[in-house]
Specification:
Blueprint: H1 9-19, E1 27-28, H2 32-36, E2 46-47, H3 63-70, E3 74-78, H4 83-93, E4 99-104, H5 107-120, E5 126-130, H6 136-146, E6 150-153, H7 160-165, H8 167-187, E7 192-198, H9 207-225, E8 230-236, E9 238-240, H10 246-255, E10 260-262, E11 268-269, E12 271-273, H11 274-287, E13 293-296, E14 302-303, H12 304-314, E15 325-327, E16 348-349, E17 355-358, H13 365-380, H14 386-393
Parallel strand pairs: 3-4, 3-6, 4-5, 6-7, 7-8, 8-13, 9-12, 10-15
Antiparallel strand pairs: 1-2, 11-14, 13-17, 16-17
Helix pairs in contact: 3-11, 4-11, 6-8, 8-9, 8-13, 9-14, 13-14
């Protein structure tokens, strides 16, 4: 039992890492301030969770800034039923919007967040709409009808191995869906458009990451083209507890008696919790002046192998004794490590010490628009030229040409092992970079590696 709630988070993590070696159940005593303000009672001990072992402090935001941005405004969230999208809806609803419009293609997710918010905020002015950002007429109609002030664009395909096997779908949904939504927002007079991006957009080795890099380029181009709308992107790493997250996968494998599957012993990832990611998105939208890529200081990356071992220990079992860990190899498009910011973008601090700004990269907007038309056409023709066109648009994207299959959506299936996110391996030189030189959070000899799928 750890009864030092006043200790700094770094010291608490060090203590917990020592204690977990005893293979005992661990609990944390709540802080005095939590007892005084009635948040918890003295008997409210809680079990140690992976988030107690994160490699950095929790993200803090200025709630007054967020309230000022949201209160009384009309806010549209695309992909509002997803992991990030639904949390955006929760935090927006808590800040008294004039109207919350939830737009999602998947009706079950949309229904769930609708019912949750109805129960919690009975007076909330909420509209839940079904549709796809790929449908030009539909997204134009939504923008024209509801005239949102702020748009959070979270709708996207994110599963790396699946997009490696269906690259044309990544272009149709991620690239063209973003382009159509951004155009509709500009025409409707939206004040601020915020794209949810990913660290996989940096020097991408997979189609999903490269498609999100193109989305960032779209946002920057649109910001130059439309002076009345501020277009920005928010880039962060993997999130815990999202759909497809590695944490539920590991827990399920442990419950089934193993093995726990990890792609590579040295694979590392940045990560954050879903509420943290959404806090960053909301704060970034307040800072937005137009064209920025906001990046979170996510601390040190951690090893997924160590996370698997810690989860096994927190379950009261011993790694490699009670539960076997199996290494399955990197998958198509997968890196050993992720990067958060392209070096040429540079970094500028904001009022929040954990949020930085990467400034826009200048490019030929006319050429870029022509390439968007070309890649849109080829993706709809279901050809195998998409990767080649993506590499032309995103010079940092490298891929291994496939020798089998005739369709752009052909390829070998990805394995079911966990890499901490939804991603795979591509065979470029970048894949072979060793993670040995990369920093990671050391938690004794069995570190915690938490990374999960993005959004």
């Amino acid at each position: 039992m750890v009864a030092i709630p006043s200790a700094p988070e770094k010291e608490q993590r060090a203590i917990l890492n020592i204690c977990k070696e005893a293979n005992c159940k661990m609990q944390i005593v709540p802080g005095i301030y939590q007892l005084l303000n009635g948040e918890v009672k003295l008997n409210n001990l809680r079990d140690v969770e992976l988030t107690d072992l994160l490699g950095r402090a929790q993200v803090q935001i200025n709630n007054d800034n967020v309230l000022k941005l949201i209160r009384g405004t009309r806010v549209l969230v695309t992909g509002g039923g997803g992991s990030i999208g639904s949390e955006l809806c929760r935090q927006i609803a808590a800040n008294e919007p004039g109207q919350l419009i939830i737009f999602d293609m998947y009706e079950n997710n949309a229904y769930e967040i609708q019912q949750e918010l109805k129960r919690k905020y009975p007076n909330l002015n909420m509209k839940v709409l079904i549709g796809s950002v790929r449908n030009t007429n539909r997204i134009n109609s939504v923008m024209d009808t509801y005239r949102p002030d702020v748009v959070f664009h979270a709708a996207a395909h994110k599963h790396v191995p699946l997009m490696e096997d269906s690259p044309n779908e990544a272009i149709k949904n991620n690239v063209m869906g973003t382009y159509k939504t951004a155009q509709a927002a500009a025409r409707a007079g939206v004040r601020t458009f915020v794209l949810i991006s990913t660290d996989k957009a940096v020097n991408p080795t997979n189609v999903m990451g490269a498609s999100k890099r193109i989305c960032e380029m779209i946002v920057q181009m649109m910001d130059r083209k439309y002076a009345d709308t501020k277009f920005v992107a928010v880039r962060f790493g993997n999130v815990l507890g999202s759909n497809g997250s590695v944490v539920p996968l590991f827990k399920k494998q442990i419950a089934e008696g193993g093995p726990v599957t990890v792609t590579d012993k040295n694979i590392i990832r940045y990560f954050m919790t879903i509420p943290e990611a959404v806090s960053l998105v909301l704060q970034a939208s307040h800072y937005a002046k137009g064209g920025e890529i906001f990046v979170l200081d996510m601390g040190e990356p951690v090893r997924i192998d160590d996370m698997a071992r810690t989860l096994i220990r927190l379950s009261g079992l011993t790694p490699d004794v009670d539960i076997r860990i199996e290494y399955t190899g990197l998958r198509p498009g997968e890196k050993l490590y992720e990067e958060l910011l392209m070096c040429e973008e540079g970094l500028t601090e904001t009022e929040n010490e954990l949020i930085y700004i990467g400034h826009p990269i200048q490019m030929d907007d006319e050429w870029f628009e022509q390439m968007l038309e070309k890649i849109d056409r080829e993706s709809r023709r279901e050809t195998d030229k998409v990767r080649e066109l993506v590499a032309e648009i995103v010079p940092t994207y490298h891929y291994k040409k496939r020798t089998s299959g005739t369709s752009g959506d052909s390829g070998s299936p990805g394995s079911g092992s966990a890499s901490g996110d939804v991603e795979g391996k591509n065979g470029s030189d970048a894949d072979e970079k060793s993670a040995a030189g990369a920093k990671y959070v050391a938690i004794e000899e069995n570190n915690v590696e938490v990374a999960a799928t993005f959004i």
